[in-house]
Amino acid sequence: MERTETQRKILEIGKREFLEKGFKDASLNKIVAEAGFTKGAFYGYYPDKTALFEDLVGETAKELLTRFKAAQDDYFDLIPEGRAKDSLELSTQHLHELVAFMYDHFDEFKLILCRAEGTGYADFIEVLVELEVDRSEEYYALLRKNGMLSGSMTRQLHHMITRAYFTAVCETIVHDMPREEAMKYVDELAIFFHSGWSGLLRLE
Questions:
Q1: Which of 52, 134, 176, 201 has its Cβ near the most Cβ atoms within 10 Å?
Q2: Which pLDDT value is given to residue 35?
Q3: Full domain range(s) for residue 150
Q4: Residue 73 sits in the same domain as residue 155
Q5: Which pLDDT belongs to residue 182?
Q6: Crossing angle for the helix pair 106-114 and 87-104, nearest 10 degrees?
C-alpha cells in the first residue's frame, strides 16, 4: 500500500512510541506533536491509536498465521508417504522458517509479543497455541487410525506443553537475542521438547 510522507512519519513516530511505552501507555498527543502534525492530520489517516497499532503489525501478524497454517498442513502429507517419523524433523524445519520470518520483522513482533496489552494482539501466542493443538489433534487421530502412533495425552497436557514451547521460542524476541544466537537456541529447544513428544506419542 502506498503511503504518503505524512503517514510514513506518523507510523515511524508511532512505532517508536509503542516500542518504548507499550500500547496502553503510549501517548497519541506525543505521537502527533513529535511528528509535527495536528490531531486533525492524524485523524485523516487513523480514527485512534488502536488503528495505528493495527497498521503497524496487522499484515505481518496475518502473514505469520498464513505461513503457520500452511506449515501445519505439511504434516498430513507425510502419512500417505509412510514418513510419519519425520514429523519432528519437519517441525524443526518449520520452526526455523517461522523464527526467521519473525526476525525479518523484528520490531513488529516485539510490538505484538511485548507491547500489545490493550489490543487484540495481547493473546497472540494463545492464538498460535490453539491453532497448533487443534490441528495436531487431527493429525494424531489420523496417525492413530493408521496404526502409526500408540501413545496419547490429554488435550489439557497437549495445550500446556505447546504453550510452554511457543512461549520459550518467543523469548528470542522478548530478550532481544541476536538472530544467530536465536537460531541455536530454538534448535536446542526443539531437541528438548521433541524428546518429550517422542516419549509421549510413541510414533510407530
A1: 52
A2: 87
A3: 57-201
A4: yes
A5: 96
A6: 100
